[in-house]
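Dear Dr. H.,

I hope your travels went smoothly. While you were away I took the liberty of generating a structure for the chain from your last submission, since the lab meeting agenda had it listed for discussion. I wanted you to have the full record in hand beforehand rather than looking at slides cold. The sequence, exactly as received, is reproduced here:
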Amino acid sequence: MGAVSDNATWPEADALLAAMAPAMVALMDELSGVMFCAKDATGRYVLVNQVFVRRTNERSRRQVVGRRAADLFVPELAERYTTQDDEVLRTGRPLRNELELIRHVGGVPGWFLTSKLPVHDGAGRVVGLVSVSQDLRSGDADDAAMDSMTRLVAAVERHLDATPGVSLTVADLATMAGCTPAVLDRLVRRVFGLTPRQLVLRARVDRAAHLLSSTTTPLADVAAAAGFYDQAAFTRTFARLTGETPSSFRRRAHQA
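The corresponding predicted structure, in token form, is as follows:
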């Protein structure tokens, strides 16, 4: 772990490192198309992999560890990353599949799909977060196309907030993205590696998983909030996609 962190040694960093698995950290350094970082509760980088370093103006982990987003990225993006981090740290709610453009000062931009998860210590306190950003390698897609995917993800989330029980058709999704159904299918498969329907299903399961792990909401209400027809349908689908029932998922999450 020391090789990955370049020996971060302040109290908040120590608390985060103590809560993380060394094998997982070591694995992150083997990934060639994924940016990885871990930040402490104050927003300082504690761990980064080489892919992350290459997206900054620095040459080594030692020059990144201990610094914050504002030190490494253009102001508009640094502010966005900090806002995301603050929300994860404050609420303990993961951020998943956030489409974003990442670039350093004077650097070449690249589209990434980012997820951020809170890290808890043995007492259940949030001591930091881990973040992975997958390089979508979409250099041949123009900004208008990528903007349509950003609009789509946000629109699906708003739909789940307002009317989770109303099914979304492919035509609805195409309207949200501002393109035709045929173009929508190509873009979603390319960017997310999913069909449009699979993208919606994953959003519903992610929402259910959050409610199961962070609340005591009855399973029937979780099913409704995540847009499932009934609790039985929810249980079948959730078990198929996650490998465990909603009840067992909740028990494991609350014991962690």
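Two observations you may find useful: The chain has two domains: 2-135, 143-255. Residues 2-135 form a domain with the Beta-Lactamase fold (CATH 3.30.450.20).

With kind regards,
E. W.
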